[in-house]
Specification:
With 63 residues, this protein is mainly alpha-helical. It has helices at 2-53, 55-61. The protein is rod-shaped.
Length: 63
């Protein structure tokens, strides 16, 4: 009986540990995606600021 209890306890600990690692990995992935989106947003804002700062300079680029 003790062996079954030990086995069940070790199995439970192993599952808990594995699930914890999966959750951590998913959170790291989500954080990385969020940082990438924030960088894209900042670049878009900076591009709009540059374009709006002097429309004539932008138009000269297309002439």
């Amino acid at each position: 009986m003790a062996r079954q209890g030990d086995f069940a306890s070790k199995l439970r600990d192993s599952l808990d540990s594995g699930i914890g690692r999966l959750v951590d990995a998913e959170m790291n992935d989500a954080a990385t995606r969020l940082k990438a989106l924030q960088a894209q947003q900042q670049l878009a804002i900076q591009s709009l600021q540059i374009a709006n700062s002097d429309a004539q300079n932008v138009m000269q680029l297309f002439r």
